[in-house]
Design goal:
There is one protein chain. The chain is of the alpha/beta class. The protein has 4 domains: 36 residues; 77 residues, Helix Hairpins; 168 residues, 2-Layer Sandwich (Heat Shock Protein 90); 116 residues, Response regulator (Rossmann fold). 41% of the residues lie in helices and 23% in strands. It has 11 helices and 15 strands. Strands 5-7-8-10-9 form a 5-stranded mixed beta sheet, covered by helices on one side. A 5-stranded parallel beta sheet has the order 12-11-13-14-15, with helices on both faces. Helix 1 runs antiparallel to helix 2, helix 3 packs parallel to helix 4 and helix 4 runs antiparallel to helix 6. The protein is globular, with a radius of gyration of 28 Å. The chain binds adenosine-5'-triphosphate (ATP) and magnesium ion. Adenosine-5'-triphosphate binds next to helix 4 and helix 6.
């Protein structure tokens, strides 16, 4: 038997590798004990992994800065032009629409970017709800069918019954869509110029049972648990080994400038792992790629129907907005006043509590930011609810966990809204709380 272990001296200066091997010779049993000073080798290893980490952080920061700059250029450039032409009285209705569309698109791109970055960190909290994965695949299929080049044939194999799983539907849809877009690209824009564009995209779902006589589950799988296996297969350009090793790295892309950010698969990886699932990838250069996602299956549970809110609702009443970000206060005021409410904003949470008391709770509802430096939203909520238990409070935040929501609900929060707001989302939440 061989034993090998690493030891560090108390001051951490010296690292020794000790290996013990049994020895049998001429009827005598013994052991060989070998001690190697591996201090220098280990230090080099540590330095190397630190350097690699710094490298990927640098890569990440560079990528974020680059993409945000592009988004911001769209906004600041357009606003400066808008202001200038407005001062010269040269602005026509259709110019205004055009400029607003640029700002709107840039804003949406920034929201997608922050969502993608948040989904790379644990800060992005998910809401798991029972869903039918077939439905998610259908959405993705429809999107691809209408937006992909006609040179791509798309086939989908759904599960014959509802494919129930507790998932964050929006994120899983994002994941599958990302895989399909990559697959589509590999059969079109990534092909060399001398190759004919096109191919077949196969999307499928099957149950991966863990019972006896079933196909063996991959090593990462929890035994005794059923999984849904979702596959996205293309016959595009495929990947070599070196590319395969890096595909999940944030900002790794082999696509032409402006075509790919390299965040797609990093996000896919995080979302699937946050669902306690895993991913298998196989690919052959020139043949195509197969991405398989495994998600824990649910046996029962009601399936939530996604309701679409077609338009915004107007209403009446006084609203107090508490947020330390002036821009958020401004836009909330604009939106809510447009909806018919009377709005007071406060950037200082302590002053806000005072103002609420001075008004003897005269506000129909409060929109309260959760993360504020002086006094956080949770403290403000407790303060107000202690004196005015009937106060209606909507908590607003960039991302919020189920656990935090529970705690806040127990402390009296009536509803939650995630930033950034839109006219529709803000109007809906307020009209739900003060009908
Ligand atoms: N189906 C595929 N076929 C061939 N190569 C792929 C496939 N999927 C991913 N890749 C490779 O992995 C890289 C990283 O993919 P990822 O989705 O993370 O980023 P991207 O598609 O380049 O950019 P983004 O998704 O941010 O627009 C791609 O640039 C490509 O080289
Ligand atoms: Mg991608």
């Amino acid at each position: 038997m061989d034993i090998k272990n690493n030891y560090r001296s108390a001051d951490g200066e010296l690292q020794i590798e000790i290996s013990i091997s049994s020895l049998y010779h001429g009827g005598i049993t013994g052991a060989v004990i070998r001690m190697d000073d591996v201090t220098v080798i280990k230090k080099k290893d540590e330095k190397l992994s630190q350097a690699q980490m710094m490298d990927s952080i640098g890569n990440l920061a560079g990528g974020i800065a680059h993409d945000f700059n592009n988004v911001l250029s769209g906004i600041t450039g357009t606003v400066s032009l808008l202001k200038h032409r407005l001062s010269k009285n040269e602005l026509k209705q259709n110019d205004l629409e055009k400029f607003l569309n640029v700002i709107d698109d840039s804003g949406k791109r920034a929201v997608t970017l922050t969502r993608q970055i948040l989904s790379l960190s644990r800060k992005d909290e998910m809401t798991l709800e029972p869903a039918d994965l077939n439905e998610i695949l259908r959405h993705v299929y429809n999107f691809c069918f209408h937006s992909f080049e006609k040179s791509i044939e798309i086939r989908a194999d759904y599960y014959p019954e509802p494919a129930r799983a507790a998932v964050d539907s929006t994120r899983i849809e994002q994941v599958i869509l990302n895989l399909c877009i990559n697959a589509g690209d590999s059969m079109t824009v990534m092909r060399p110029d001398n190759e004919k564009r096109g191919g077949t995209l196969n999307i499928g779902i099957e149950r991966f049972p863990s019972g006896e006589n079933s196909e063996p589950l991959p090593v990462e799988a929890e035994s005794g648990r059923d999984y849904w296996k979702i596959t996205v297969k293309d016959n595009g350009i495929g990947m070599d080994k070196k590319t395969m090793e890096r595909i999940f790295e944030p900002f790794f892309t082999t696509k032409a400038k402006g075509r790919g950010t390299g965040l797609g698969l990093a996000m896919v990886y995080n979302i699937i792992h946050n669902h306690n699932g895993f991913i298998n990838v196989s690919s052959d250069i020139g043949q195509g790629s197969l991405f398989s996602l495994y998600l824990p299956a649910d046996k029962s549970g009601a399936i939530k129907q996604n309701k679409l809110q077609p338009d915004f609702k107007s209403g009446k009443g006084k609203i107090l907005v508490i947020d330390d970000e002036e821009s958020i206060c401004d836009i909330s005021k604009e939106i809510l006043e447009y909806c018919g409410y009377e709005v007071t904003v406060e950037i200082n949470p302590e002053a806000a509590v005072k103002r609420y008391s001075e008004n003897e709770g005269g506000f129909a509802c409060i929109i309260l930011d959760l993360n504020m430096p002086k006094k956080n939203g949770f403290e403000v909520l407790r303060h107000i609810k202690a004196d005015y238990p009937d106060a209606k409070v909507i908590i607003s935040s960039g991302s919020i966990s189920d656990e935090k929501m529970q705690t806040l609900s127990s402390a009296g929060a009536d509803a939650f809204i995630t930033k950034p707001y839109t006219l529709e989302s803000l109007a809906k939440i307020v009209s739900d709380v003060i009908p």
